């Protein structure tokens, strides 16, 4: 698979898994609500993991690349570089 196809496949499978977890439109509303809360809990846990990883000093010392929150990623003098 190309990178584009792999990305599309990941999106399709994630959508399928989410649909299966939430049930169809004919599903019991209580079951669907509980499943939605479960998916929400999974997403919050993923955010927590990302925050912990970004704030971990060992990650920063190991050469982690600062993102938009960590500061500018361009040259120090503010130039755009080769255009």
TrEMBL record:
Comp. bias intervals (Gly residues): 64-73
Residue stretches of biased makeup (Low complexity): 74-83
Region annotated Disordered, chain positions: 57-83
Record protein name field: Uncharacterized protein
Native organism: Streptomyces sp. SID7499
């Amino acid at each position: 698979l190309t990178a584009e196809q792999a990305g599309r496949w990941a999106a399709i499978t994630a959508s399928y898994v989410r649909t299966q977890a939430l049930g169809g439109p004919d599903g019991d509303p209580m079951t669907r609500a509980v499943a939605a809360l479960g998916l929400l809990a999974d997403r919050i846990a993923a955010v927590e993991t990302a925050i912990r990883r970004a704030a971990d000093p060992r990650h920063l010392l190991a050469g982690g690349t600062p993102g938009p929150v960590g500061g500018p990623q361009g040259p120090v003098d503010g130039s755009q570089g080769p255009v």
